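Submission checklist for the structure archive. All mandatory fields must be present; incomplete records are returned to the submitter.

[x] Identifier: F-box domain-containing protein
[x] Organism: Absidia glauca
[x] Residue count: 407
[x] Sequence attached
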Amino acid sequence: MSNLGDAPIEVLFLILNNIDQQNHLYECTLINKSFYAAANPLLWRAPQMAGGTKREDTILFRLKQSFRLPHQHCLHSTPLGHNVRKLDASKICRLQDLRVVINNVPLVEELVIGIEKLKDKDMERIAIKCPQLKCLCFISPLDGSDRFFDPLRHCTNLRELSIYHSLGSHLQLAPLQHCPLKKLRLYSYGFDNEYAKDTFFVDIPTLTHLDMDYMPQTYYRHFQALPSRPHFPVLTDLRIRNCRFHDNSTMVSFFKSHPLISTLSLKDMQINQAVMTSLATDLIHLKYLCLIDNRRLPALTNPFHRVEKLNIRGCHINAQHMAMYFSNLRYIHVAKGISTRRFNDDISQLDGSTVETITKLTYLDFTSYDSVPDDLKVYLPRRTGGQLVKEDLDHIRETALGLVWIY
């Protein structure tokens, strides 16, 4: 073998598989026939479009046109659609184009759909034609029939499902109990409302991640009586937003039924003393706690022995008890000038030395790479001048251990 171009196609494929940029893969297809044969399947695994506002510019339309082209010039007889693994049909796509493409991408694993007015037949087509589907996301409001999700019971590889839901419409999730789902995200279009009261929730024994807006009243009522049987017995990651609990004991009962939760995010909720106590006593595996826009939080009365990360935004908490009740937290950072909601005694108005005095925690300003202690266990690239960019700060906030991040 005199040069890389003489390497077997299998070797070239393994090398080019490390290239993420599609423009670089496209350049590789222009080198010679061997590079074309190795790079072309990778170029099609997650096809993308540069932009445009016309139907002819959409990825579905281009794919539909390419499937109709003769393939006698290709080195392999494998249809182009068999190379697609990730398909994003979220921008100005049409239903008739989606139907044609779905019939030609049998090995697709991730599918994002931004098309409204999907029919039950369309869901059946997706379930039958895409048996390898692992991740399915609907980013347009769904108003399907009660049987819309029935075909998902046949998707034995489905692990992630995201649904944007129109408030007030029916959303029957009963078929999900037959799917080996691990992650479920339910988002709503609308404000100050909740899911339809007849939304039906069922047991999903494999679910570990649940992300929801507007939990329905039927879900509340299930946990009004103790002991309550958990819908998600192995749930470890919970994110809830915009919930208006008429009875906070419902949330306490939910926590008692799901003690394995280790990551919890509560946003736009009124948290009372009973809920705050339940967070410390019932969630015995809680390690990451995120409180966003929950207004004034009740006083801490119980220690959070296992919490290693604490994010607080748009909330007010008694800073003097920070070190007393969070024994695994050693550092604190206050992001200046971000939050628009201020309290008279807001900690974000104080300087670093005052914050250290009140909280008994070491204040970190994150002005440079060297200002990040090693025991935060954060791995950052050293940039020119040693400065930290927004990407670095976001990474610190999400992954650092032993840190309170107030913003």
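[x] Structure attached
Curator remark: Confidence is low (pLDDT under 50) at residues 191-198. The chain is about 25% helix and 20% strand.
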